Amino acid sequence: MELLAKLGINWGLLIAQIVNFLIVMGVLGFFLYRPILNLLDARTERIRKSMEDAKRIEQHAQELAKLREAEMKRLDHESGEHFERIRKEAQALHEELLANAKKEAEATLQGALKRIDEERRIMMEDVMKTVNSVIVRMTEKLLEREFTPDDQKRIQEQLIADLPKSIR
Amino acid sequence: MSGIETPPLASETIFHLGFFEIRNTLIMSWLAMIVIFIVMFFAWRTKYKEVPGRFQALLELIVEGLFGFFQSVIGDKKQTRTFFPLVATIMIFLMLANWMGILPGVGSITILGEHEGHMLNLPIFRSMNADVNMTLAIALISVIATQLFGIAALGVLPYAGKFFVAPWRDPIGSFVGILELIAELAKIISFSFRLFGNIFAGEVLLVVISFLMPYFAPIPFLGLEIFVGFIQALVFALLTAVFLKMAATAHGGHEHGVEVAHA
Fold it and tell me: Is residue B47 part of a domain?
């Protein structure tokens, strides 16, 4: 008891300090711990939900990306087929057009050659007639006599026979 | 030149309210309470918002830091939430009181008064924990709370079984139970005298150093007292948390207790 007295232990003061401590604990609990811990819990919960949402969105985005990739592959494949088909069609059309053009060109060429031959033949006939008449006249002048139609015909035949084959 | 006037072991009575002694350590505890109430008033007035301001962020930092620390000791979030008001208040209140004890004016502002039959210059303010009444009060709260939480977690009979084991069934367990009971009582003494001793020794140290070299020399010791004030508050709160956790956890002795209780 002497030690307690020396240490100044006073039961009234002891109880007062216990009450003081309990008041401080109550005030801190009511104004500090409870609201802040609730706030922190709510914040943690919100962050957890946000994280879950973000994870779900990421998963959805990954699924969409996979879907997109598959769709792109499919479209790529389809477009490749389309392209090949169109290329073949274009090739066929090109060949057809080329063949037609060749045919037309051939026909045009043949026609032109025919026309050239015809014109050449007509021209040669004209030339031959002119030449014949000139030769007959010159011969008549040289011989100072006129040929009969039979002579003229014979001379003409003889002349044609003497001409090179290419211009006959 | 006068000699060193070291503070007496017992706190000094400054005045009386009826039969009640108002001691200098009680005044300091009121001052510490006022500081806490002012901070809480500002917290209440500014309201807690979803996006915290600087003041709220500071309070969140303190509460979250303490909660995380005690959770790492206790291990279970739900239990930590239950014990948190007690252990956090011990930490905050003791640390604040310890730090306020080294403020200028504490121990040096005096009035003439009677102490232990002598007329002396009595300091109006004295560090709250340099009084056994305060440390004993918190030690009692800590130990009683430990018993109450233990009973709440395990039940009355299983908890009592930690201390009371039938000697004819388990003589060693019975002896250990008695030791456990003594240990519970010893906790009160160790809690209260550890804190009181450290803070009182700090006060004496500062008085001695200030007497020997009044200028500059006490500064490192003030730093030391800040550290000691923090450590002592931490140790008190930490030990309380550990004892609470131990009390609320069933262990080997628990089953014996149940057996005895049902015998």
Answer: yes
| Selected residue of A15, A19, A20, A30 to mutate for chain B interface (largest B Cβ count, 10 A) | A20
* B150 class by beta-carbon count within 10 Å (0-12 exposed, 13-18 middle, 19+ buried): buried
Distance CA B179, CA A94 (A): 109
Global ipTM: 0.88
Rounded mean pLDDT, A51-72:
95
Residue range B61-70: average pLDDT?
A: 95
Beta carbons within 10 angstroms of residue B216's beta carbon: 7
Q: Which domain holds residue B209?
A: 13-262
pLDDT 10s digits, B84-130: 999 999 999 999 999 999 898 888 888 888 777 778 778 889 888 88
The pTM (predicted TM-score) of the whole model is: 0.72
Backbone φ, ψ for residue B140 (5° rounding): -60, -45
| pLDDT over 60 (residue A146) | yes
Decide if B7 is inside a domain: no
Asked if A107 reaches chain B (Cβ–Cβ under 8 Å), the answer is no
C-beta atoms of A27 and B37 within 8 A? yes
- Residue pair B101/B128 in contact by the 8 Å Cβ criterion: yes
> Can you give the pLDDT at residue B249?
83
CB pair distance less than 8 Å for A40 and B133: no
In terms of C-beta density within 10 A (0-12 exposed, 13-18 middle, 19 or more buried), how is residue B207 classed? Answer: middle
Q: What are the strands, taking DSSP E only, across chain A?
A: none
Residue B68 inside a domain? The answer is yes
Flag whether residue B71 sits within 8 Å of chain A, measured between CB atoms. Answer: no
Residue B131 maps to a domain: yes
**How close, in Å, is residue B84 to chain A by CA atoms?**
8
Quick one: which H or E segment has residue B21?
Answer: strand B20-23
Could you give the CA distance from residue A14 to residue B91 in angstroms, rounded to a whole number? 19
Rounded CA-CA distance B115/B58 in Å is 43
Amino acid identity at B241: A
Total number of domains constituting chain B? 1
Would an 8 Å CB–CB cutoff place B11 in contact with chain A? yes
Shortest CA gap A57–chain B (Å): 25
